[in-house]
Here is the input.
Amino acid sequence: MTGGLAIFVTIVGLTIWSWDGLSQPESAPRPEFNADVRRAMVADATAMERDSAFAKVSWGEAPGATPIVAGGQAPVTVPISDGRAVVSLGLASTGIDGRKAGLLSVTVLDGDRRLFGNVLNTGDAAGSTGALTVSLNAAAVREAGVSTQPLTLRVAAAEAVGSRRSRDREPEPLALAEARFIVSPP
Here is the structure.
């Protein structure tokens, strides 16, 4: 019985081996991988995603940005240019009120409703102009149902998680800055 099974397995194995070798046509050679082309494709896709995002935040003052001041009494009206409303808040990359911070949490609020949030590492701000720029997609702002009421830009500085001090205790916010602005209607 086992001899018959061994012969059967051998015949099936030889059939599969010979069939596999005969049935596969030669495939076309794969194109050579080009890292520069791949990087360019990823950069284009990332730029398109960022442009369509609700907002983007970056270190430094952007050309054409409307300057806003933390704690200002009256909200600043921000015009729409090229489909975006761009505000720039003067803020030292080391934190708020000169205290050392590892992270800055940036939030855009419509009343109590959070529209956008991002966290920036202060280590990425080397050489910046001491400003934080938020660029809002005007179409996305309109789709969110934002009225002509002021939006609030809230920036909270905190210790970097994983720093020596934060391992011993929960990191606390070091300081908070808020500024109000209105995206001008189209």
